[in-house]
Amino acid sequence: MENVNRKRLFIASCLALLVTAITFAIRARIEGVFTDDYGLSKEEVGRAFGPAFWGFAVAMFAGGYFIDIVKTKTVVWMAFAMHLVGIVLLLMAKDYTSLFIANVFIGLGNGSVEAACNPLVATLFPDKKTKMLNRFHVWFPGGIVIGGLLAWLLMDALNLRWEILVGLLFIPLAIYGFMFLGQKIPETERVASGVSYKEMMRNVGAPVTITVAVIIMILVATVPSLSVSFDSALPFIIVAAIILLIVVEGRVVNKITLLFPLVFFCMLLTASTELGTTQWINALLAENGISPMIILVVVTGIMAVGRFFAGGLVHRLNPTGVLLGSAIISTAGLLLLSISTGAVMTLLSAAVFAVGVCYFWPTMIGVASEYIPKSGALGMSILGGAGFVATSMVLPIMGKSIETAGAHITLRNMSVLPVILIVAFIALILIVKKHNQKAE
């Protein structure tokens, strides 16, 4: 790639993801501030944090659909602007509404980073996409480690105000802005390979139905009166209708396999398993005899190391095998956390959970890039966006469960998600195997 500084662009992308990750660590720490000091309930905090996830989804979907029209560079600078505004508004937040609006901008900034940088990394390293996507995503858990340590040092050890912690975000924000400044950013892999926009849409399988489904999820996560209640048959009817429409749009209209919709479904559960648990870690493990921020640092530290060395594991097991193993270990980790009481057992259980969720996010993106390459930037953006909007739905549900049923019951109930994933990933392995046999 002529006149493209691949190393500088990759480092800049990692720093942009670092800002995204630190916001997650900060939210995990300051949720108590808004309940104790500003009088919000845990369910309200969960809803106010929700835009950080569905805003992420909106930005990723918009980026996926329009990145090749407006160019990657524009999306990068949108991310910078949204991050800047969101951080300033978060510093000013004192109630539900102001916290909600701040998280809208932070979510849009975070989503724009993923919408731009996932396809950028895949384009910069076309021969080792899954490996480099895992290395790029090292900086998500890596950033949470940094943010968690800073949160513990500033707020727990030094007893400083939370605004000082949030203000530190301006440092990596300024650096990644400088790193992208004046750089030539290449076209996405889809454009470079000559795959048409129409063909990209077709390879998503059911783009219209999937987009509508995500919009419904955002509404459920945002509007309290639309809260999910499984006491009635309505949620199950809606899910069944969406599945039917996906089958019709994918098989009848687009006449293509439903591989991408299956990956989309799996992403909803993998993201909720990982991010739902880590975002509520302060409330979930507050009574376990060890600082939840230390647990968060351990979990995300293990994830960072695992992702950095993911290349060899992915090569030996292939991406789908890695995902199946991850689902099994995640189930064990959540069940162990649900019965943990002391510091040592909690730490060991958290380590098992960390190994389980370690490869979920980047490997899911890698599966789309490896096995459904014509889905392009849109496919990667839909998966990332869907993961975050699913988490925005889970957060208030978890918050309410923690208040009513307790932390241990909530963790046990969350283990149902990776159990479902075990079945789904076995199906994915069989479909990919059949797909590869036909390709040969």
From TrEMBL:
Database matches in SUPFAM superfamilies: MFS general substrate transporter (SSF103473)
Compartments in which it is found: Endomembrane system
Transmembrane segments annotated in the record for this chain: 49-67, 74-93, 99-124, 136-154, 160-182, 203-226, 232-249, 256-273, 293-314, 321-339, 345-365, 377-399, 411-432
Entry keyword annotation includes Membrane: yes
Q: Which GO terms describe its molecular function?
A: transmembrane transporter activity
Major facilitator superfamily (MFS) profile domain residues:
9-436
Q: What is this protein called?
A: Fucose permease
